């Protein structure tokens, strides 16, 4: 049996980041053979990873990689069990290496990612070895790569806490405008992270969702008006609709007829109606598209200049560069969204481990 020295244990720990006692045991089991001890620790790490499989990983970080030409960008979410581990340098490096690999290889599924070549083995082997070093359940939950269309560009943003990330894509009138629009797209990505739209435009809403929201919002305003009336304060307008997707040509025609009837009842001369009707129709649209302003990106007030919508801000910026641009897609990730977190009974967990 080879003598296991402190120097050998130290060398193995430096190479693997494994706990000191595990390094000593590995060397003992492998009769001092350093390479075999590394394999022993790696295999043990795989076993530990399997034991962690039933735990919930709902913390973590997002990783972002954008090409220098803004032709493509990748975003990945990697989850850990605790926020503490998400701040670990090793975990941060793992996120960075993973998104860089996704970006470089162009893989599109977790299976492709795990089976892809990485260093001297597969990416799965690399990932598992890092999980063993870090010491808790870590999973690649999801990732996406956006590629620009012809005369288009892509950019992205991850918030400073690493928990909210966005990719945005636009198509432009020419390649020169596309290149110039890249900084604007990063600003729009920051807007998405802050304002959390769920669709690109009102056309993308599910009709059933709009119908349910319409009923709920109208009832909420009626209830609020009851309180305002009690306090003798001005009442809020109760809309019939909440989204532009509901404002059909028939609805708009009926609204215009109602405005004309109102003007006639007020005794306004018919010759000046043409000057008044556009403004009142615009107000009608504004009052009846509250859902769009909240949840449809293009209709939201732009956070860096709330005098414009996001769509108007894009148009204005493109015009500065002598062309046009149109947002075509955005993707937002938020760490842990949709994951049901476990509520841990700490005393029970300790008792189970001791048993």
Question: How is this structure best summarized?
Answer:
Helices cover 51% and strands 18% of the residues.
Q: Can you walk through the features of this model?
A:
By secondary structure, this protein is an alpha+beta fold. The protein has 15 helices and ten strands. 51% of the residues lie in helices and 18% in strands. The strands form four sheets. The chain has a three-stranded antiparallel beta sheet with strand order 1-2-5. A three-stranded antiparallel beta sheet has the order 6-7-10. A two-stranded antiparallel sheet has the order 3-4. The protein is elongated and about 110 Å long. About 3% of the residues have low confidence.
Structural class: alpha+beta
Give the beta-strand count. Answer: 10
Unreliable stretches, pLDDT < 50, 5 or more residues?
46-54
Number of helices: 15
**Sheet with most strands: strand arrangement:** 1-2-5
Could you report the average pLDDT, rounded to the nearest whole number?
89
What series of H and E elements makes up the topology? HHHEEHHHEEHEEEHHHHHHEEHEH
Helical coverage, percent range: 40-55%
Content of β-strand: 15-25%
Shape: elongated
Terminal-residue CA separation: 34 Å
Rg over CA atoms, rounded to whole Å, is: 29 Å
What's the story with the biggest beta sheet?
3 strands, antiparallel
